[in-house]
């Protein structure tokens, strides 16, 4: 009996420690300020596996939108010199919860969600989907590149009240062997059938961003997502 109690107590303690560890994590991000100091327009950038926010320091220059602020976010889990958003289902849940908290904090700091754009590549795209489908506030727009929706049936069963009002730009490479295009395209069709507003674009590329051609499409989506003036 005592051994059973000891084992049970050990498992409960391990679960509690894991929960506390996740709750105590705080996402780190680098802010790149807009040239317009009064702008509250913000893009939150979520990197891919093994990368970091610093890996997207080139993005503000490439976008060339002087009124847009950027938050280059590091995923919470170390991975081969960089960071990972998840290695398993539990990690996806943990990262999603951390990003919910992060977004709530930005709202309280004066960064309205309706003026916030999400940008996610690969694993970051997965998290952008999680936020777009589940977060209860409307974003300016959501950009997902070369990624998939984790557990699509569960995601469709737990859509937020504003998920069908969100605007998504989803791009994928025809030569992507990391995240096959066919699976992504199939998911997008299911999401469209569920009433989601998705602009789907294919590019001749591998698991990367396809230079000026894709950047131009992303820029046009961003500009169209904000009111004029």
Give a verbal description of the structure.
The protein has seven helices and nine strands. It is globular and about 40 Å long. The strands form two sheets. It has a seven-stranded mixed sheet with strand order 1-3-2-6-7-8-9, sandwiched between helices. It has a two-stranded antiparallel sheet with strand order 4-5. β6, α4 (123-134) and β7 form a beta-alpha-beta unit. Mean pLDDT is 90; it is low at 1-5 and 8-24. It has 229 residues and is an alpha/beta fold.
Summarize this, please?
The protein is an alpha/beta fold. The protein is built from seven helices and nine strands.
Distance between the termini: 71 Å
Using the alpha-carbon principal axes, give the shape: globular
Largest sheet: 7 strands, mixed
Mean pLDDT: 90
Helix count equals 7
List keywords for this structure.
229 residues, alpha/beta, seven-stranded mixed β-sheet, Rossmann fold, 7 helices, disordered N terminus, 9 strands
């Amino acid at each position: 009996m005592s051994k059973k109690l000891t084992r049970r107590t050990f498992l409960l303690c391990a679960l509690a420690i894991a929960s506390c560890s996740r709750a105590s994590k705080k996402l780190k991000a680098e802010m790149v300020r807009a040239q317009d100091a009064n702008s509250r327009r913000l893009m939150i950038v979520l990197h891919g596996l093994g990368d970091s926010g610093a890996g997207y320091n080139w993005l503000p220059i490439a976008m060339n939108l002087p009124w847009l602020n950027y938050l280059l976010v590091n995923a919470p889990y170390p991975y081969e010199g960089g960071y990972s958003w998840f290695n398993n289902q539990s990690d996806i849940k943990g990262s999603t919860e951390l990003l919910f908290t992060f977004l709530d904090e930005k709202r309280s700091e004066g960064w309205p969600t309706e003026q916030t754009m999400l940008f996610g590549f690969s694993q970051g795209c997965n998290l952008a989907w999680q936020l777009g489908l589940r977060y209860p506030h409307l974003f300016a727009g959501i950009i997902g590149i070369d990624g998939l929706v984790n557990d699509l049936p569960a995601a469709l069963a737990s859509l937020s009240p504003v998920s069908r009002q969100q605007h998504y730009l989803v791009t994928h490479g025809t030569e992507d062997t990391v995240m096959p295009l066919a699976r992504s395209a199939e998911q997008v069709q299911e999401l469209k059938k569920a009433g989601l507003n998705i602009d789907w674009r294919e590019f001749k590329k591998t698991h990367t961003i396809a230079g000026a051609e894709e950047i131009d499409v992303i820029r046009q989506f961003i500009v169209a997502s904000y009111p004029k003036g």
